Amino acid sequence: MKKLFDSAVSRRSFLGGAAAVSALGLAACGGNDTPSGGEGGGEGGETTSGGGTITAGSAYAPSEYNPTKTSSAFCLGSNWHVLEGLYGTDPHDYSTFPELATGDPEQVDETTFTVTLREGAAFSNGNAVTTADVVESFDRTKADATYSAFLSPIDSLEATDDTTITVKTAIANFSLLKERLALVRVFPAGTSDEELSNQPVGSGPWMYSTITDDAVDLVPNPNYNGSYPAEDAGLHYDILVDATARMTAQQQGQTLVMESVTADAIPTIESAGCKVDKVQGFGTRFIMFNTAKAPWDNVTARQAVMYALNTDLMVENIFAGLAATASSYIPKDFPNYQEAATVYTYDQEKAKTLLDEAGVTPGDLKIRCTDNTQASAMATQAQQDLAALGFNATIAEETSAATYAAIDGGTDDFDILIAPGDPSCWGADPDLLLNWWYGDNVWQQTRTGWGTSEEFAQIRELMNAALGQSGDEQQATWKQVYDLIADNCVLYPLIHVQTATASWDDASKNPLGTAIEGFEGIGTTGMSFIGCKTVTA
């Protein structure tokens, strides 16, 4: 499979959906290239492929499987295998491909498109997938706060007949229609929220078998008739939040794939014989200012702090090099990247000059951070960097839930927040990534206090304009947004992290004699096993 971060997808391919990429879909993941029972994996000798159990060690615990509302790192990833949308998103390069749809949307007029369903598609419970199922899945997903901003450019889906969906958009010539439709996972109409949360039913290649807090098992969907059928008897996840437990299971061969390898463990797991994929992603550790409080309502004061932070040292000491400092809102290796007009590099003298220009006399300062290990370490370094400017910074570290509850309550007198975030689990088009923090939502209206500013209104106007554009024109508009966000630095990435994933790709090296064929790590949370299969020496 063509990996986004080894060879960036062209802007035009990314924006246009790229018919050629969609036609290739996920086949190059390896599963369909070697006939079942043929040779594969290993460095020599006869091997058999398929028919086994894919085993994986998850770094995240399940929390919410309901596809209309989930933002759970584990559940989003496992749902990829169980529930289809009209379109899917390949998390390796973020290209879209038809799942329940038979091809690209057909445009009727500026705001009307039609999509045809795949013939014979059926849920794992045996019921045929209908256009009514698709419409209800869309309506319920759009109604949830997690997805409403992403889906707002689509007014409605209507069942034209038994096989055709009519899509009405709020944006003329909406260029990101497939990317947005890919967010909606289709389930049987009438399924209760409780049923969706407990064990959702879908039409994908896999179906849930058993779900517990410690392990999740999937088996092949006997009714699946799509392009990427499961070739193994099972897909088993062990929930191993503890990094040492994941390492032990991987080293012993009990898991074929290990999610989220820590930097210090990479040499050990590689020497054991595993492949480690290190993929640059969007996942960020960001800084957010409380602009409702002086002096952070002054852009010059905010910029002074940005120049005062030694992000290169953070990458070296906290991330062991498995990260990149931000030179734009979008990471450098992503499609649609352009360097922002303002790039913040460590410059204490410039920081002091800007503070003087802003008329700020350094004093007490409260840094909030979540209990994410890296965010906590970054807050400690930020405390030291700001001390060099004369600030007396204190750190308030709590869980994410407690941190945002305090901020959202409106009574917390914090100055800056350092925390993690990664909306790229849903996709990587700039509008989606921008909307998570710069949509008309709680982030700017409540948390930063910047939602009534002229600059925020300008950003929203440009973002809306870009939705109806394509190609170079759209890219130029997004560049204006990147520049405004960087210049104002109200909420901005400090670090874009890499994700490291270990896998046994050679059965002869695994103590248990099994490998996984075609697996590739991705730059966000979750693991994709679509098109992959086991290989036994």
Describe this structure in words.
InterPro entries: Peptide/Ni-bd (IPR030678), SBP_5 (IPR039424), SBP_5_dom (IPR000914), TAT_signal (IPR006311). Residues 34-55 are annotated as: Disordered. This is ABC transporter substrate-binding protein. Its main location: other. Residues 37-54 have a biased composition (Gly residues). The structure is a single chain. With 537 residues, this protein is of the alpha+beta class. The chain has 2 domains: 11-274 and 504-536, Periplasmic binding protein-like II (D-Maltodextrin-Binding Protein, domain 2, 3-Layer(aba) Sandwich); 280-498, Dipeptide-binding Protein, domain 3 (Roll). It is 31% helix and 21% strand. The chain contains 18 helices and 20 strands. Strands 2, 9, 10, 11, 12, 13, 14, 15, 16, 17 and 18 form an 11-stranded mixed β-sheet that branches. Strands 5-6-8-7 form a 4-stranded antiparallel β-sheet. Strands 1-20-19 form a 3-stranded antiparallel β-sheet, with no helix packed on it. Helix 10 (299-308) packs antiparallel against helix 12 (348-358). The radius of gyration is 24 Å and the shape is globular. The protein starts with 10 loop residues before the first helix and ends with a strand.
Question: How would you sum up this structure in a few lines?
Answer:
This protein has about 525 residues and is of the alpha+beta class. The chain has 18 helices and 20 strands.
Map the helices and strands:
Elements (H helix, E strand, L loop, with lengths): L10 H6 L2 H6 L23 E2 L3 E6 L14 H10 L4 E3 L6 E3 L7 E4 L2 E5 L14 H12 L2 H7 L2 E6 L4 E6 L7 H5 L11 H6 L7 E6 L3 E6 L13 E6 L3 H9 L5 E2 L7 H6 L3 E15 L9 H10 L2 H7 L5 E3 L22 H11 L5 E7 L2 H15 L4 E7 L1 H9 L7 E6 L8 H9 L3 H6 L6 H14 L3 H18 L2 E13 L10 E4 L15 E4 L1
Parallel strand pairs: 2-11, 2-12, 15-16, 15-17
Antiparallel strand pairs: 1-20, 3-4, 5-6, 6-8, 7-8, 9-10, 10-11, 12-18, 13-17, 13-18, 14-18, 19-20
